Write the structure tokens for this entry.
Amino acid sequence: MKLNDAQLAELEADVVTLCQELIRIPSVNFGEGKGDESAVAEYVVAKLAEVGIDAKIYESAPKRASVVARIEGTDSSRPGLVVNGHIDVVPANAADWSVDPFSGLIKDGCIWGRGAVDMKNMDAMMLAVFRLWA
């Protein structure tokens, strides 16, 4: 799939918005099985559902949510491709941050917040591409 400049700009804007929205949903993993990714998992499922992609949430423990979706390819003779990421983040002490760690603020040309570089940024990119393909 080749994108023209307008489509590429729209895709980029979608990635930025998705990344900001993902960051704004706390999904902190405190370790030792303590964490809560359920709200961000529900967000991901809803964003995929908007474009007709069926996704399911699986919990390894209460509130420890993961999302699985299957998108059919166009050539069944070709092997499948698995794309994965994680939706949890490590705890953030707000006093150590110059901005709210769950703000998704754009500052100095960058998106700031817990998960902005590990891994909600990549999750946003994957979501945007999947939504484009749908």
